[in-house]
TrEMBL record:
Residues 209-220 have a biased composition (Basic and acidic residues). Residues 201-220 are annotated as: Disordered. InterPro entries: RHS_repeat, YD. It comes from Pseudomonas versuta. It comes from the Bacteria. This is Sugar-binding protein.
């Protein structure tokens, strides 16, 4: 094994039974330019600002492939084409937060609240087979308090709501799940004076089961 001290000990070469690796680096930036070994070859291409813009692969037993990406000056990816040719595009809002990601089959849109927490995420299948919107709510201390999941398909719609209640010390005391207005499951939690959970109780028509099919209702 050979390393380059000037690059923080970056690997230059390694040889062992059945394994060989030889790396080349940019002499000025220290970025990896080429990695070649018994499994094949990879070449990395960098922008003047130091962002990886393309990687070429030539692995043994596979056809040559390339992965490319376009980035903003701050390094955020705006377009990515993976080694299989699938393309993704990303958009950002005025504060630099991801607002939309488009792939070959799915588009994801994200909005934020005033505290830059995710407020809503919508996932749409491009063929119209599924449209799901998740809306998040938080309590006054920023803890997750409500999660609404609305799902639409060509044949049905559903709304699932999960709510959570917390103690002042950050311990979860109740979690409730409903589906289309009907209770699915309610969970309550109790703790000892040291904050350790001592009771976890569940109620409702849909309760988890163990490996033997026994319904789980309470744990001490």
């Amino acid at each position: 094994t050979e390393r380059q001290p000037e690059l923080g000990g970056a690997l230059l070469s390694m040889q062992a039974p059945g394994i060989s690796v030889f790396n080349k680096y940019d002499p000025l930036s220290g970025r990896l330019l080429e990695s070649q070994g018994n499994l094949g070859l990879q070449k990395d291409h960098w922008s003047p600002s130091g962002q990886l813009i393309k990687a070429d692969y030539a692995w043994q037993g596979d056809q040559p492939r390339s992965q490319q990406q376009t980035t903003t000056p701050s390094g955020k990816v705006t377009r990515l084409t993976d080694a299989d040719g699938a393309e993704q595009r990303c958009q950002y809002d005025a504060l630099g937060r991801l607002s939309q990601q488009q792939g070959p089959d799915v588009t994801i849109s994200v909005t934020y609240d005033a505290a830059s927490r995710i407020h809503q995420q919508r996932t749409q299948e491009k063929d119209g087979s599924r449209d799901m919107t998740v809306t998040l709510g938080y309590d006054s201390l920023g803890r997750p308090a409500r999660r609404e999941t609305a799902t639409r398909t060509p044949t049905r719609q559903s709304l699932e709501i999960q709510t959570q209640q917390w103690r002042k010390d950050g311990k979860l005391i109740q979690r409730e799940l409903t589906r289309d207005g009907v209770l699915v499951r309610r969970e309550t939690f109790d703790y000892d004076i040291r904050g350790r959970m001592i009771v976890h109780s569940l109620s409702g028509p849909s309760l988890p089961e163990d490996a033997h099919g026994k319904t789980y209702r309470e744990q001490h």
